[in-house]
Amino acid sequence: MISLLSDLARALGLAVDAALLQRAAFTHLVEHPSIALAALVIPLIAGASEMLGKAYVLAAQQVGRWRIMASLIVTGLVYLLGVLVWSASAHVLLSLAGGLSVSETVLAGTIALAYAPRLLSVLTVAPYYGEFLDRALDAWTFVCVGWGFWVVIGGPLGLVIVSAAAGWMVSAAVRHYGGRLSEPLLRRLRLVTPGGGHD
């Protein structure tokens, strides 16, 4: 338990370095794969952060506390699913291209660390600059993933860019449609999603 908490704390510390494009943040994952697994908490928190930004809307709609909490968790899980799909896509592409030099766990951890900018998603609810900030966070995240791939894979550059871009598109589709596809079930459970309401 202490080891897990230590890994989680270390992963959160590395996330700050990853957002600042510090090479050491990603090389640490290669040397310590257990941190890569712990880093998967970052997209969970990032998803919850996005939903938290809409908490005042939920409160105004008199949504119960347990449903708000469940909605935070579901949104986090959608983000996590996006990371896992992205890493799986990159893993397959790198395997086919013969450029795979790291495990899928390290790839997933790299992407998870690179989601650090999305921890600021709570700010995207702002009425005037929210949409611009959301796009900026997406771009920042993509740059972090590309840099992380470059560090852990080691090139060639074209393969790194293609792997990052292809995975990004798949992940974006999962994030975009994940909430929509799950919305009917969530409505039946009386939960809410970032774009949804409640009964």
TrEMBL record:
Keyword Transmembrane: yes
Organism: Maricaulis salignorans
Protein name as annotated: Uncharacterized protein
Membrane-spanning intervals of the chain: 34-57, 69-94, 106-129, 136-153
Keywords for this protein: Membrane, Transmembrane, Transmembrane helix
